[in-house]
Amino acid sequence: MTSSLRLLISNSYDPWFNLAVEETIFKHMPANQRVLFLWRNDNTVVIGRAQNPWKECNTGKMAQDGIKLARRSSGGGAVFHDLGNSCFTFMAGKPEYNKAVSTQIMVDALGSLGLAVSASGRNDLVLTTDDGDKKISGSAYKETHDRGFHHGTILLNANLSKLADYLNPDPKKLQAKGITSVRSRVTNLAEHIPNITHQKLCDVITQHFFDYYGEQADAECISPESLPDLVGFEDVFAKQSSWQWNFGHAPAFSHIVDERFPWGNIDFHFDVEHGVISRCQIFTDSLNPAPIQELADLLQQNRYSVTTVTTAINQILPKYPDFAAELQEMSSWLGNAIK
Ligand SMILES: Nc1ncnc2c1ncn2[C@@H]1O[C@H](COP(=O)(O)OC(=O)CCCC[C@@H]2CCSS2)[C@@H](O)[C@H]1O
């Protein structure tokens, strides 16, 4: 008899690949199937579908350190992933889909390792420690008319100082709507059970998944080199990897950046829609406002990104040789301010 369960293990650490696999499997699975997908991402910040990355994370530091940004299609806040963080996804058709079931499977699996874990009022799993409850897992959900998934993280031995660094945004004058992350006190399971590994964790989650349904399934390993037949995967992967989705899908926002240079004060007011500068106004008392105005005009209708700034400055430079040093100075300041 074929099993109603499917167990998928990703061997890739690329968040864009893994999220595209998750999305494609979810879209095409038969509604009577139950899927458990286990995966990890390296050096990544994953944000919720309605979040603003420039507001929620330190995008400048992330770019410097080669940390990928990945927007997911579920709601909720921003989390940091590295190989010390494990991810799980439970998928099921409706009406069976029930996040209370998957949450209980996780609580029981972690309990079987001797950990006092419970579901918090929010979407977290917390570990009871001598120092109070600490978050070890965050979850998010997605539902369509006939199916749903619950995915979440488990902190095993993630780099918590990186976690704090990347999720601590620069204090920018950013006015933005969108979902704000809820910062928590976190802990790694390895601090509480030193011999825990990703593999052991996957084994207990799998065992509890099988036990709950009273069935088993062989594990299928997925990687870019061995992709099962996933209808439409290429398109989903292209979207998931795109700047337009990961950054550009941020809800509209505005950003004011100002600086006092020896040669004048400057205020840039940016309005950004779909990640594109829809309006850029400047206010300056510089005696030479023309190149600055020209810069503001050139920035409009382009991506809110460092590349946009450097490209525009390079375009203006030859026209204003007497203002070159000031333009260079502005380029690095403005690039820094919006990255
Ligand atoms: N990896 C990880 N795990 C648990 N908690 C984390 C993690 N990284 C950061 N945090 C803490 O959670 C808050 C944000 O909590 P908040 O509740 O705002 O958001 C979440 O939990 C979202 C979980 C999404 C899970 C998906 C599953 C597959 S891909 S990502 C952050 O400020 C930190 O304090």
From TrEMBL:
It catalyses: L-lysyl-[lipoyl-carrier protein] + (R)-lipoate + ATP = N(6)-[(R)-lipoyl]-L-lysyl-[lipoyl-carrier protein] + AMP + diphosphate + H(+). The keyword Calcium does not apply. It is an enzyme of class 6 (ligase). Keywords: ATP-binding, Ligase, Nucleotide-binding. The keyword Ligase applies. Residues 30-217 form the BPL/LPL catalytic domain. Pfam families: Lip_prot_lig_C (PF10437), LplA-B_cat (PF21948). Pathway: Protein modification; protein lipoylation via exogenous pathway; protein N(6)-(lipoyl)lysine from lipoate: step 2/2; Protein modification; protein lipoylation via exogenous pathway; protein N(6)-(lipoyl)lysine from lipoate: step 1/2. Its EC number is 6.3.1.20. This is lipoate--protein ligase. It comes from Orbus sasakiae. The lineage of its organism: Bacteria, Pseudomonadati, Pseudomonadota, Gammaproteobacteria, Orbales.
